Amino acid sequence: xxxxxxxxxxxxxxxxxxxxxxxxxxxxxxxxxxxxxxxxxxxxxxxxxxxxxxxxxxxxxxxxxxxxxxxxxxxxxxxxxxxxxxxxxxxxxxxxxxxxxxxxxxxxxxxxxxxxxxxxxxxxxxxxxxxxxxxxxxxxxxxxxxxxxxxxxxxxxxxxxxxxxxxxxxxxxxxxxxxxxxxxxxxxxxxxxxxxxxxxxxxxxxxxxxxxxxxxxxxxxxxxxxxxxxxxxxxxxxxxxxxxxxxxxxxxxxxxxxxxxxxxxxx
Length: 267
Fold this sequence. Notes:
By secondary structure, the chain is of the alpha+beta class. It is built from eleven helices and four strands; from the N terminus they run H-E-E-H-E-E-H-H-H-H-H-H-H-H-H. It has a domain at 1-102.
């Protein structure tokens, strides 16, 4: 997938998460619409939701052929040939269930669906990476990011121990990447902040305030304002690359997005 397309989907994914947290459930500011296999015939959200009622037991048998993503900057049709399809389909269903008050076992089924499609764990060392073509290297880096996004999505859909457990899996995977690629520990993949936040929130839901603070402090440590964020990202240039500003640069728009996504909720 082209770098610019991948980054636009990353941003959409973040904005959709923010909308869910603000209880704006697919109301139009960010929307994901369903289309059937074959001709572009839209499936009304109510029809899709009613097909499995108050559980997601049929999610794995869905008949959605394409998704249309729409927000202020993106209008994109997405087919099942990319891992983004299953991730954003599951996220749309999570938004529906949260709006319905999370019926029993519904989010567990969403988690099972994501685990069924979880991008394969594939960690390459520096020697193996050097043998790849540019296209292969880009695909590898995108798939490892997507694996982390899947684990973070599963964690976000749970509470207490399960949320903590899947956040731990994301953090452990990032640590494995750092060892294989001989990177300094921490500060290499910005989605680690999401996993740390999810772990902290999981401990909050389990009424483990002290443990929650340990995780959340890792998210906000040394970042008291926008200038601190800019300085921190300058020190960690691999954390988020914006194709609009070149290697190691993050746009003001992207920075503001991450502050809204993680920094404000973690405080």
